[in-house]
Specification:
With 228 residues, this protein is α+β, with helices and mostly antiparallel strands. It contains five helices and 15 strands.
Amino acid sequence: MELTYRGKTKDVYLLDDGNYLLKFKDDVTGEDGVFDPGANTVGLSIQGAGKAALRLTTFFFEKLKEQGVPTHFIEANVDESTMTVMPAEVFGEGLEVICRYRAVGSFLRRYGKYAEEGQKLDGFVEVTLKDDERQDPPISEDALDMLGILSKQEYQILKELTKKIGAIVKDELGKKEIELYDIKFEFGRTGENKEIVLIDEISGGNMRAYKKGDYIEPLQLEKLLLDE
């Protein structure tokens, strides 16, 4: 097993069979000790965050499988904080795709002249480049196509998948009277036919969720959703 990538919240290992092993860590993104799913740096470590993220990821990836949504997920071992996944080719050097239901975070920082904090957004899909140096700049469909990162046809598939997956997550949270404000996804191409699939994770670390107007921390979200 070979370490191929050391990320902010997980490490990636190449397995002998060509698949990959993701090792979830207790590090979460943020700044100055405050969690922020949109941040580009590790802001703090929370004991148990890795296992909580993996439990939620496993829960949602299995839900997506039931509904025929393609992902790179194979299996997970929560006790060891690991997940086995299929190899996937990222777009360019990586994209983040955000589905927004309320105006918060970077959306509000950019468009606060026109948007009110917390105002409803109709599943607005936004794509950003994974580029820490440039603060993950938003990029348009046309620019993605012109730069050879993503074709216009692929963009439409990406957008449709984002809306579908976001709606599934939103509905599951709604069963516990939790409201999803926004969520961030990553996608890649797999197999000979370059099928676009969801990769990485779906956890409290890449979404903002609220209950009765109060923000829910990642570990608390996992407990509220999965514990009876």
